[in-house]
Amino acid sequence: MTTPLELLAPAGNADIGIAAIDHGADAVYIGAPKFSARADAGTSVADIARLIQYAHLYYARVYVALNTILTDRELPEALEIIHEVFRLGTDGLIIQDVGLLELDLPPIPLVASTQMHNSTLEKVQFLEAVGFKRVILARELSLEEIAAIRKKTRVELEAFVYGALCVSYSGQCSMSQAATGRSGNRGVCAQPCRFPYTLADGDGNIIRQGKYLLSLKDMNLINTIPDLIAAGVTSFKIEGRYKGIDYVKNVTAAFRQAIDRFIGSRAEYCRSSSGVSEFAFSPDPVRTFNRGYTQYFISGISGKREKIASVDTQKSIGQYVGEITGTGKGFFRMGSNDLQSGDGMCFFTEHNNLAGFRIERVDKEKIYPNNMTGLTIGTLLYRNHDTAFSRILKKPSARRRIAVEMDFTQENTLIRLAVRDEDGNQAETTREVQFEPPRDPSRALEQIETHLSSTGNSPYRPAGLTIRPQQPGFLPVSTLNGIRRDALELLTGIRLNKYPRETISFTPNDTPYPEKRLDFHANVLNEYARRFYERHGAEIIEPAFEALSDTAGKTVMTTRYCIRHQLDLCPKYNRLSRPLKEPLRISDRDHTYRLEFDCRQCRMFVILEKKTP
């Protein structure tokens, strides 16, 4: 018995989802027409249907995200959408709002969004007992914590392995709502974590001014795939429903190769979909959008940790390409490089501000930018727009094909072609023909081999072909092409009809919730959610943050990221010349937030204090 592993890619729309499948994804996730945590990435029913049809041919799955918290008025429409996407063939529904579990849901497998704050064993055990098929784990969890969850649960575990990071525990961030009136839990996050802030001590002394103190680097766990598998993860999720098709193609292909390398040396694991992707490029995530990389907390929170924030910029810096070794009138030199006209470049100035320029032309070792300001010997350069790489990815850059074995038989006035795919599906077609004795038997045999094996633009590749008898009669090319086309079209229909779709009926129960009193962090915005928690033994003492009349003094963000650690101000790990006067505060133009620290759990709390005068 082998364990299937799933590479899960984002789909901002059907075309991007199809590209993800072509580039090796075993599954994709896409926003529902409304009520997804990326509101602007909602997709039409027609687009979802088109993506499902394409994915299911490769036995790849499509999950629909309907993972915002909902009002009572929105629940009926949300339920209609859920029934609609179920009828289309959706393989799973990603949700956050437990109020949905009080409704008459279709038998669609349920996936607990990371917005549900799935960060403890007790929470995952509860979700499993309630009836979720899969839990998307909090990004903050370490390998040790994931393994502990796996040891005491059987539910499928999905983990993020690449992409942008929310600095707060997902589902526990109300900062966007507090600062702009746009709720992340309602799908319209304004990303205040990417805003510049000024950090001051308890006496008002400025520690850092105008820096991106809450902006994290991007996650990249491509080198920890074996460790995640050992810990119990079977689905590996790439973030990015707002990202473009170049990003999805490149990153999906890179992780496809990484997972296949692991599977190739482990007989006990397999891919969870069909077909093999062939790439027209060498995948390299660093060549597309990234803010620099971090492995986040995958190794735990104790001891010396990496710096995970990008406090000098919230923008993509891309790929490090080298150091300027010389300058001249309107040009600079650097070591060996592959820069070309049109590349976008960036660098950090002497004040650690990000600056950029475009390359106008390259003349041997001389590189001419459109602006030389700030470029001096020793400047480190990054490429955040790779013209050549982007040009490749704008074209068809991968082809995915399913292996088929063919058996061709010629008897009297009948020819038969039977095909069998890698999943055991079979199809057969016959034709009556009048044979002509071949003038050259070896050429007749070669012609049959050539045209039956030429599968063209179909999703199939020949993995074997038998021809009987060994000296067949001569057949016209049109006949060979026609019987091959008919057999493969018949096989496609059979594959789609036999797609192994799973359905799971949801049955409410009264499993005790791990907590007894729930405040606004439970994100209860409708009466059905309240009913759910009460049925499971919890008391709702406060509605969701979005429904509070007074939010001053509320914790709008809880995070394992620590500003003090990032800036070498941690009293636990750094020797400070003098203790910092607490409390520390960060402020933007409109709001001030107090910072509190739980050093034992290594957590930071961001508390809304007041509007800046």
State the domain count: 4
Residue ranges: pLDDT <50 for 5 or more in a row?
none
- CATH class category name of the largest domain: Alpha Beta
By CATH, the architecture of the largest domain is named Alpha-Beta Barrel
Choose one word for the global shape: globular
- Number of helical elements: 13
For the termini, the CA-CA separation is 65 Å
> What does the largest sheet look like?
8 strands, parallel, barrel
Which strand-content bin applies to the residues? 25-35%
Average pLDDT level: 95
Question: What would you call the structural class?
Answer: alpha/beta
For this structure, what is the CATH homologous superfamily of the largest domain?
Answer: Copper homeostasis (CutC) domain
Helix-residue proportion: 10-25%
Can you tell me the CATH topology of the largest domain? Answer: TIM Barrel
Number of strands: 30
Report strand order across the widest sheet: 1-2-3-4-5-6-7-11
Radius of gyration over C-alpha positions, nearest whole angstrom: 28 Å
